[in-house]
Amino acid sequence: MKPQLLKVSTDLIHSFSARKDVVPDINSHWHYHPEVELIYFAKGSGIQFIGDSIESFNSGDVILVGSNVPHYWRFDSITEDDHDVDVRVIHFNENFWGADFLDIPENKELKDLLKQSQLGVQIIGAARKEVAKLITNVIETNGSRKIINLMEALLSIAATKEVKHLVSMGFKYHFQELEKDRMHSIYNYTISNFKEKIDLKTIAEVAKISPNSFCKYFKSRSKKTYSRFINEIRVSHACKLLMDGKVNVKEVCYDSGFYNFASFHQYFKSITGKSPLQYQKSFITS
Predict the structure, then answer these.
(1) Residue 165 C-beta-side C-alpha neighbours within 13 Å
(2) Measured between alpha carbons, how far is 162 from 130 in angstroms, rounded to an integer?
């Protein structure tokens, strides 16, 4: 599919969008937009898709997504009464402050950061709380202070070395208008059914293409096999369960859609670089 082009709205008195969302389904689909996105999950968790990256997101996460990089935030299932979503998000055009602003020598840090944002930048160190506070300040202020807070947030990200790039170097998405909904359908079906065995015929029917064509199609668009894709989702779910620490590793295995403990261990280590037990211990002791 082509991810959907999202129209980011602004009003007549602001040059960029800054808002707080308290419902989980805002822009909860595979989409892209020309604006850079800076997002802070004050409350909320789920699975995020950014470019060719699949990872869990959790409360406290702060991520910078570059212009036209496709992404999708799939929140964990919650009820309307839970009130467990609080997302603060800023969208801005790279040149909203003027066509030549980023080219002056003093703004090299900003310009370099916006180039990095094409890889999806997640802030993982101490700067995360500072950036989160500044994002909130952007939403709550007006006038010149609004722009200053945004610049300070971006400069804080540029200054820290404790970041993680989420998207593979050189990733390019093949935009094809006639495939507008196909990948979104694949994603939704897989996320909803990853605990079950999904055979090739079933997922090909979801994609509305033949089983013989599906594997080649999916890999050409996502840069990974469907088997790798679904196992990344299963491992992402397993990571959440291991972080919670409420069930043992074998229970995590079966609750995540793996039917064989040895294969669970193998896939988990190949994706995270750690065994399930090592991952759980490193999280608990970090």
Answers:
(1) 15
(2) 13
**Kind of pairing between the strands at 86-92 and 17-21:** antiparallel
Q: Is the dihedral of CA 264, 265, 268, 271 positive or negative?
A: negative
10 burial type by CB count under 10 A (0-12 exposed, 13-18 middle, 19+ buried):
middle
Q: Please give the pLDDT value at position 283.
A: 66
pTM of the predicted model as reported, rounded to 2 decimal places: 0.78
Classify the phi-psi angles of 80: left when phi > 0, otherwise alpha if psi is within -120 to 50, otherwise beta: alpha
- Rounded Cα gap, residues 201 and 204, in angstroms: 5
How do residues 118-138 score in pLDDT, each as one tens digit? 999 999 989 999 999 999 999
Residue 96 near residue 110 (C-beta atoms within 8 A): no
DSSP the chain: -PPEEP-----TT-SSEEEEE-STTTT-SSEE-SSEEEEEEEE--EEEEETTEEEEE-TT-EEEE-TT--EEEEEPP--TT----EEEEEEE-TTTT-TTGGGSGGGHHHHHHHHHGGG-EEE-STHHHHHHHHHHHHHH--THHHHHHHHHHHHHHHH-S-EEE-SPTT------GGGTTHHHHHHHHHHHHTTS---HHHHHHHHTS-HHHHHHHHHHHHSS-HHHHHHHHHHHHHHHHHHHT-S-HHHHHHHTT-S-HHHHHHHHHHHHSS-HHHHHHHHHH-
Q: What angle (nearest 5°) sits at the alpha carbon of residue 283, between those of residues 171 and 59?
A: 65
Contact indicator for 38, 135 with CB cutoff of 8 Å: yes
Higher pLDDT residue, 132 or 240?
132
